[in-house]
Amino acid sequence: MQPSFEKLIPPTGSSIRCFDRSIIEKPAGWHYHPEVEICLIERGSGTRFVGDHIGNYADGDLVLLGANLPHHWASDEFRGQRYDRHPAVVVQFDPVQFGGQFFGLPEMVDTVELLDRAGRGLHVRGETQQRVAVAVREMLRQRPSARLLSLLGILNLLAQSADLAPLASPGFAPSFHPRLQDRLNRVCKYIHDHLAEPSLNQGDLAKLAGMHPSAFSRFFKNGTQRTVTDYVNELRIGLASRLLLETELSILEVCLRSGYENASNFNRRFREFRGMTPRDFRAAHRAPGGHPQRAFEPPPRAAAPA
């Protein structure tokens, strides 16, 4: 899908933006900006979109995003609402402001390599996630000078860590066509808001976009690197996975709440995306003692060929 450009303005006296996302009146949807971003989800669950990656997120999710990398977090809590204001600490900075000479210093070699890898988005896990999360929260309370030092410390910690997993595919290269972005954004928001409705279909989406069904099919795949069917099923199975882990709902109820009308289709699609049945998935990813856990992160699915 075509992302919108977001113009970021740092506060007076600082080159770094650091804020609680939940207080933003109108947070951006699918968007990009030249600033590098660190995003820590304090509370919530939903679907994470980074480049051509689609995955689940939960409490404590931490991601480093490179410059101009399209991204969006669609939370379960705010599904159907105009703005998605889930709690998250966000740090944004423009490496260009630091200057080429600064990043040319020998001490910055590892950080430069890190920022290059962040062009695909990096999911931060394990002990590194815990240490960076503490430092990011502390940045909210710091003065600009201390905030800059903390940012450099975080980047150094990330650059030395093995707890980083790339999100977007290696060949992902965003292409921006502003005249098409509103149409596709409108369609994708409609899909997300009506995900649990079995009546969601490609014909209605084509009408929403004002296009002939065959033209819409090509348009959607060019914009998302997925067919409409694959896109919808990927989101629905992501929702089903969270319901299986975070609730005590029966398999049939999870099936119905995820937009599937019958268990056989649900089981077939679930096996396709997760490699096991919903029941086996729930059993395999339960925390000790049989209680639901919220830390499941499925491996990224490769994007469909354009």
From TrEMBL:
CDD domains: cupin_MtlR-like_N. It comes from the Bacteria. Residues 297-306 have a biased composition (Pro residues). The keyword Transcription regulation applies. InterPro entries: Homeodomain-like_sf (IPR009057), HTH_AraC (IPR018060), HTH_AraC-typ_CS (IPR018062), RmlC-like_jellyroll (IPR014710), RmlC_Cupin_sf (IPR011051), Tscrpt_reg_AraC-type_HTH (IPR020449). It comes from Lacipirellula parvula. Residues 282-306 are annotated as: Disordered. This is HTH araC/xylS-type domain-containing protein. Pfam families: HTH_18. GO terms for molecular function: DNA-binding transcription factor activity; sequence-specific DNA binding. The keyword Transcription applies. Residues 185-284 form the HTH araC/xylS-type domain. Keywords: DNA-binding, Transcription, Transcription regulation.
